[in-house]
Each structure stands twice: as C-alpha cells, then as structure tokens.
Amino acid sequence: MKYRTILLFGAPGAGKGTQGKILGTIPHFYHCACGDVFRNLTIDNELGRTFLEYSSRGELVPDEPTVRLWRENIVSHQQSGRFDPNRDILLLDGIPRNPNQAEMLNDTLEVKAIFYFTCPDMEKLVERLQRRALRDNRLDDANLEVIRTRLATYESDTKPVLDFYGPQLVHTIDATQSPVIVLQDILRIISKF
After folding, report:
1. What domains lie within the chain, and their CATH numbers?
2. How far is CA 116 from CA 11, 44, 62, 163, in A?
3. CB of 18 within 8 A of CB of 129?
C-alpha cells in the first residue's frame, strides 16, 4: 500500500516545519519531519553518529541510511497507532532530499501534491535559521558556514526533486508571508483535494 502524501518542500528555514506542525494537528493529517527523526537519534548508535558527522558539516546524510531510518520510523508510528495510512494523509518534510531518494521511495509514496515554499532572499533564510538555532538549540543551524553549505546543497541536490515529480503536482507558496497567510494559502489548496 502506498501512503497518500503531501510533500512540504523548500530550502532550510522556509517554514516547512512550522506549517507541518500546524497541519499535523488537523484530523487525518500526519506530519513527519525527517530532520526531527534524525535529531532524536543518540550517538549511541551508528545512524546517530552518521547524522552528526554529516549535519555538523551541513551535508546531507547518505541516501540509504536516510531512507532506512525514515521507513523504520514510519512503520513504528503505524504500529503505535499514531499514523494510520488508511485514514491519514502523510505530510512529509525533509524527505526525499534528492531525486535518488524520491526514486527509492516511489514504491511507498503516492505524492498527491507538493507545497513548494519559496523565499528568494537567502539572507532572510540565514536569519531564520540563526534564530531557530537559538530558540530550538539546533546545532545544525548555529554556524554560518554550515548554513550556507546547507542552502547550497539544497539548490544543487534537493531542488531537482521538483523535476522528478513534475510541475502538475507543485503548488508554489510565498514563504516570505506571515505564517498565518502561508497557512491560508495551503488550506485553500488542500480544500480543493
């Protein structure tokens, strides 16, 4: 069975997590942020050490461990009853991070829409990430060089995911608006599904 999925897509700091958390509180929507899954790992295990090694440099964790961790996590959420794929639409944030991951997940995800959060001002994204580092104690957002590497990696590796799924699924959202207006734009689109 494929999971009915909406991808929350955009550069680091564009607001995917903020909107995902809000949308995840609506009945029959389940938000899964891959970054949160990684950050909840401990360095006691191999995946935790791998995440720390790559994220501290602003690089993406290799595809195989990323997809494996995500699959294990979503299955555990199904088994615990938090996510019911027969009832819930999966809101994915932070995966797939490149076309290869999209291909690896093609047998699992039935992508219904992509909300593409755009923010043409990269300096605004840098500011958001630095504020988030302080507020949420996110080490991967604290170092300016790491932030710039993450943004460059998004442009080169992640953005091509949009081409993988095609323009017919993409709904562009202006992420420079206030979170309430962004939410209104998303809900307007979701209500048409």
Report:
1. 3-190 (3.40.50.300)
2. 9, 35, 23, 12
3. no
Give me the residue label for tokens 């090694």.
53
126: its two tokens: 């840098």
* pTM (whole model) above 0.90: no
> Which CA distances in Å does 100 have to 10, 17, 64, 119, 175?
17, 23, 10, 25, 26
pLDDT digits over 47-77, tens only? 778 877 887 777 778 899 899 989 999 999 9
Amino acid at 84: D
Name the residue type at position 127. Answer: E
104 half-sphere exposure, CB direction, 13 A CA radius:
17
- Count how many residues are written for the chain: 193
Residue 33 CB partners (closer than 8 Å, separation 6+): 16, 17, 20, 93, 94
